[in-house]
Design a protein that fits this description.
Layout (H helix, E strand, L loop, with lengths): L2 H19 L6 H4 L3 H5 L6 H8 L4 E4 L6 E9 L2 E9 L5 E5 L3 H11 L3 H4 L5
Antiparallel strand pairs: 1-2, 2-3, 3-4
């Protein structure tokens, strides 16, 4: 076996090995037909979302931006995936995604220009 072929084989084995060790990667393709993923759109009311997806697993009051966020657990072929539907201060869908409300809020805190103020810093 040539050195190039051996190097390519090792590189491919490394990539395959890393992919196999990923913990619970979000498989957007698997969950694309779930009603919450497929049907919920920006601007919908919470009642419209509940009609599609039922009651959430939990609700969290948003801190960085006014509103609430509902956690759902999607189930597909024995696998579970967190999914959130976030509502703005007027109660309309602002964002959805494959993470929990707590993860979303943490991401928002990191992006917020008020981050230093919230942590008591800046003076």
């Amino acid at each position: 076996m040539s050195k190039q072929a051996l190097a390519l084989t090792c590189a491919l084995a490394s990539v395959v090995g890393c992919a196999g060790k990923m913990e619970n990667p979000t498989d957007f393709y698997t969950y694309r037909n779930q009603p919450l993923v497929k049907q919920v759109e920006e601007g919908m009311t919470e009642q419209q979302v509940r009609t599609i997806g039922g009651p959430p697993s939990s609700s969290v009051r948003r801190v960085v931006h006014a509103g609430i966020c509902n956690n759902y657990i999607l189930n597909q072929d024995g696998h579970q995936q967190a999914y959130h539907v976030s509502f703005d201060g007027s109660g309309r869908v602002e964002e959805t995604g494959f993470m929990t409300c707590e993860q979303r809020e943490s991401n928002e805190r990191e992006k917020s220009p008020r981050r230093e103020i919230d942590r008591g810093g800046g003076y």
